[in-house]
Amino acid sequence: MEISVTINGRAHTHDVEPRTLLVHYIRDSVGLTGTNIGCDTSSCGACTIHVNGESVKSCTMFAVQADGEDLLTIEGLADGDTLHPMQESFRQCHALQCGYCTPGMVMAAVSFLEENPNPTDREVRLGLEGNLCRCTGYHNIVKAVLHCAAGGEQ
Amino acid sequence: MIPAAFDYVRAGSAEEAVAALAAHGDEAKLLAGGHSLIPLMRFRLARPAVLVDIGRLADLAYIREDGDHVAIGALTRHRAVETSELVAARAGLLGEVTSHVGDPQVRHRGTLGGAVAHGDPASDIPSALLALGATLVAIGPGGTRQIPVDDFFCGFLETALAEDEMLTEVRIPAADGATWGFEKFNRRAQDWAIVGVSAVRRAGGDVGVGLVNMHSTPVRAAAVESAVASGASAAEAAEVAAEGCEPSEDLNASVEYRQHLARVLTRRALEAAGL
């Protein structure tokens, strides 16, 4: 089936099998490999992208369901060489160790702050409930999100 | 894992969806948000030959007042229920319970109707619908019908919906001024409940209690409700919480442990509901 999606502002049209998961479409057909596949069971959140501005696990959606929708992946977050404030906060707060969960963590965090711009520490933890960091580096991830919410000041 | 191949049908209306179900019989499944179905398909625990995508039926995504009910379209996403002021004011328990479903990403995509029609005994939302005495509206080839929630859950992942029927609306008797409690016990964030309890106390004093993962279906704690109606305290009523339930045993909990959890969590939920 032919689908057309906008990813990071660019239009793409591809013929896909209905059973193609969105994350496989993004990685294999479009060639954007920043979105990682972690658990493949809707648990870990490594594959989190935005669909129409909201965080979604792209392993739990068929590509055909995204037909006509507006997608944002980690590659579309920065403005050229200028990191998105959330990326910058992750960098400043050392919010990554191995980095595998990071694209999904950042995408989930951006969506979360749009819904809750001034969260408490606990709200950040609940808001990132759908993302696992197997380095268990949660402390600095939460710090980075709060840092970003506070405008990125030191 | 990649799901088994299937034919994809995109429905343009509820009538089209029902016609597609009628044409394909038990080979077909409805796809709404997909957050119950797609994981099952990836494990190949479900292998429908045809998926009928109803995810674009925007006219079934709504939350509105309908007389003395709150009417919620089956395709309303969890996030919309969770953040609805109308739900908060008139069916607050449902908003609270919905905010515990999965995680934010799941709640952005998953739908109320999908969660209910899936009929999972470990799902949080049916417990709230049981406690609140909801009515479910379904459309089939012969038109629409209303199903009381007490008649809806028939077996493990089985509901009263016929093969060619589709859930269109969840109707909740307005519970203005009600107080409620929801207790979900799990070991890790975002896990399913090992046991969960929804309790609501309506302004008139009537109490409804629904249990999560205590039986092969979502189940009402009828014995607790009767005990409360006869004047029992929260602690006394909670003692009969597991009565009539046949919980399963798994890695997380033995039958006895689940029964114990049901009693403890029911007491807490009743106390939170102001009993």
Question: Could you walk me through the main structural features you see in this protein, from its secondary elements to its overall organization?
Answer:
The complex is a heterodimer of chains A (154) and B (275). In chain A, 32% of the residues lie in helices and 15% in strands. By secondary structure, chain A is an alpha+beta fold. Chain A has two domains: 2-76, Roll (Ubiquitin-like (UB roll)); 85-149, DNA polymerase, domain 1. In chain A, strands 2-1-5-3-4 form a five-stranded mixed β-sheet, with helices on one face. In chain A, helix 2 (85-92) packs across helix 5. The model of chain A has no long low-confidence stretch (mean pLDDT 96). With 275 residues, chain B is an alpha+beta fold. Chain B has three domains: 7-53, Uridine Diphospho-n-acetylenolpyruvylglucosamine Reductase, domain 2 (2-Layer Sandwich), CATH 3.30.43.10; 59-173, Uridine Diphospho-n-acetylenolpyruvylglucosamine Reductase, domain 3 (2-Layer Sandwich), CATH 3.30.465.10; 181-272, 2-Layer Sandwich (Enolase-like, domain 1), CATH 3.30.390. Helices cover 32% and strands 25% of the residues of chain B. Chain B has helices at 14-24, 37-42, 78-83, 85-90, 92-98, 104-109, 112-118, 125-132, 222-229, 234-238, 255-272, and strands spanning 7-10, 28-31, 50-53, 63-66, 69-73, 135-140, 143-148, 153-155, 158-159, 166-173, 179-185, 195-201, 207-212, 219-220. In chain B, strand 2, helix 2 and strand 3 form a beta-alpha-beta unit. The longest helix of chain B has 18 residues, at 255-272. Chains A and B meet through strand 4 and helix 3 of A and strand 1, helix 2 and helix 6 of B.
Secondary structure layout:
The complex is a heterodimer of chains A (154) and B (275).
Chain A: E1 2-7, E2 10-15, H1 22-29, E3 48-51, E4 54-57, E5 70-72, H2 85-92, H3 102-115, H4 121-127, H5 138-149
Helix pairs in contact in A: 2-5
Chain B: E1 7-10, H1 14-24, E2 28-31, H2 37-42, E3 50-53, E4 63-66, E5 69-73, H3 78-83, H4 85-90, H5 92-98, H6 104-109, H7 112-118, H8 125-132, E6 135-140, E7 143-148, E8 153-155, E9 158-159, E10 166-173, E11 179-185, E12 195-201, E13 207-212, E14 219-220, H9 222-229, H10 234-238, H11 255-272
